[in-house]
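>> received
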Amino acid sequence: MLLQKEATNTIYQIIQEELEIIHQKIDVIQEQLSILPPGKLTVTKNQSRYKWYISNENQQSYLPKSQKSLAEELAKKKYLSYKLEELLLEKKVCTQYLQYFAKPYNKSEQLLANPRYFPLLKSHFKPKSQTHDEWVNTIYTQNKNHPEHLIHKSLSTNLVRSKSEAMIDTALFQNKIPFRYECLLQLGDLPFFPDFTILHPITDQIYYWEHFGMMDNPTYAKNAFSKLQIYCSYNIVPSINLITTYETRNAPLDIYQIESIIHYYFR
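>> returned
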């Protein structure tokens, strides 16, 4: 059931992203159509010759070869009009799917939130939101190294070590994604403190997010790659259950990247 849920959620995300692309394509085509000449093109064949006609309302007139450029523009208009019809149909189908599977597997949570049923269920089940809150608020072992570097306050009130971490922390908090900052992760004999340990809000799968902020520093980059090797040796793999972001002085992390990552993994 969990695999089925994850598969559905993945398809849901893919269709959401596809719908955004469709919207962009529709906007481009509509803009192109708005500057093309009025009228519709009809092409007929008379023996081995083709004749062009332009229709405006109920009138049809012949287009001579000297007006080939107009015929080309009208042919382009017809092609784009058909393309627009196809995209609008794709949009309709994607929208219907998203509406049908909106908030997948949420009926059980809705039942727990229903005051008629909750008194009968509360001794057996907890609302997922309550379980997540308990996970977030449970005391855990945090990184005690260099507390003097915890100088950036995020919207969640966490103190973090960099402006980029503050952006990630705030974005997770605003998107109501359960997470812990620098929570101990024991890998064999090695204590690790991933920047963020995240509980997927739908599947309850654990993800880790490491931000590497000085990749233009050779020593820092070497240590970052060594850290990733250790993660992989314990089946914590980038793009699967480990999220990684990077920046240099000339290529800082921005909020659009962060929001895109959160949307991809957790929505």
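>> The chain has eight helices and eleven strands.
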